[in-house]
Predict the structure.
Amino acid sequence: MSISITLLAQLIAFVLMIWLVNKYLWAPLSALMEARRKKIADGLSASERGKHELKLAQERSTELLREAKDKANDIIAQANSRSNQILEEARDNAKTEAERIVAQANTEIDREVNRAKEELRTQVADVAATGAERILKREVTDKDHESAISDLIARI
Amino acid sequence: MATENAGGGPVEYIQHHLTNLSVGEGFWQLNLDTVFFSILLGAVLVLVAMRIGRSLRAETPNGLQNAAEGVLEFVDDQVRDSFGGRVPKIVAPLALTVLLWVWLMNFMDLIPVDLLPAIASGLGVEYLKVVPTTDLNTTLAMAIFVFALTIYYSIKVKGLGGYIKMFLFHPFGKFLIPLNIVMTAIDEIAKPISLALRLFGNMFAGELVFLLIALLTLGASISASLLIWFPLQVVLDMAWIAFHILIITLQAFIFMVLTIVYIAMAHTQDDH
C-alpha cells in the first residue's frame, strides 16, 4: 500500500489511454458529430431560405395574376367598344344604302309612271279618233281634224 | 479458498485481500494486478471504441454509437461549461478517458470479492487485488498528470512571472509574502492529493465493506445460525452493490469534473 514504481507504470498507462481514447473515440466521433451538427444547421437555414423564396414567388405570382386580369379586362373592354363601333358603322352604312335604293326605286317609279301616262295619252287619242270616225260613219281626213284631235289630246 | 488455507481468521482474510500481487521490494515494487487490470480494462475500452469507430454512421447511428455520443456530449458539455473561452484540445479527451476508464476500474469493485482471487489461486497465483483504483498508485498517477497539466497551463496562460506572482501575493496581498508562499503551495498541493485520495478512499472503503459482508459467513460450518447469517449476508450484499453502483459512477464523475475544473482554473487570469 505504498507509493512505488507502480505509479510510474500507471502514469504511462494513463497517458497512453488518453492518447488512444482521443485517437479511436473522441476524434472520430466528435468530428462526425460536428459534421452532423453543421449539416443540420445548413439544412435548417436552407429550408428557411426556401420558405422565404417561396413566399416571394407567391407574392410575385399573385401580382402577375392581377396584372394579367387587369390586362384581360382592358382587352375585353376595348373589344367591346370596337364591336359596338363596327356595329354602328354597319348600321349607318345599311341605312344609307337602303335610302339610296329607295330613292332610286322612287325615280324609277316616277319615270315609269310618266312613260305610262304618255302611252296612255296617245292610246286614248287613237281611241277617241276611232270613236269619232265610227260616230260620223265617214272618212274624215286627217287634214280636217288635225286640230280637233290635238285639242282632244291636250284635254285628256 | 485462500482464506481457508490462511487459517480462516478475519484479519488474515482481509489482509490477504488487500495485498497486491507484486514483484520487487520497496520503491521498486510493481503491482502486477493493478497494472494488469487497468491495462486490460483500457484495452476493453479501446476495443469497444474501435468497434464503434469501424461502423460510424452519421445518418443512422446504431445503439452503441448512440451511447458513445451521449457520453461524449455529456463530457463536452461539462468541459464547455467550465471553460469560458477556448478549450485546449487535450481537455475533452482527457476528461472522457478519466470518466470511462475510472468507471471501468471502479466497476471491478462490483465483481464478487472472492471470485477472481479464488480463480487466481486455483491457477496458482497467491494474491490478487482486482480493483486498480483501490491502489493509491493508480489514483495518484492520474492526479499527478492532471496536476502537471494545471501547472503547464498556469504558466502558459499567466506566464512564468504570473505563476510566481500567484505564489507571492495570492491570499493576503504583498505584505505577507512568506505566508502567501506557504498557503498557495498547500493550496496547490492539496488539489492532486485530495483528487487522488478521494477516489482511492471511496473505492478502498467500498471494497472493505464488501469484505466485511463476506466475513459474515466466512468459514462458518453448516449450522442453524447459518440460516440467519446467510440471508442477511445476501441482503446486505445486494444493498451495498446497489449503493455502490452509484458510488463508482459518482466518483468517476467527480474525478472528471475536478480534472476539468482544475485545468479551467489554471486558465483564469489573476482576479486581483
Remarks:
- The radius of gyration of chain A is 61 Å.
- Chain A has one domain: 9-155.
- The first helix of chain A runs from residue 5 to 136.
- Residues 9-155 of chain A form one domain.
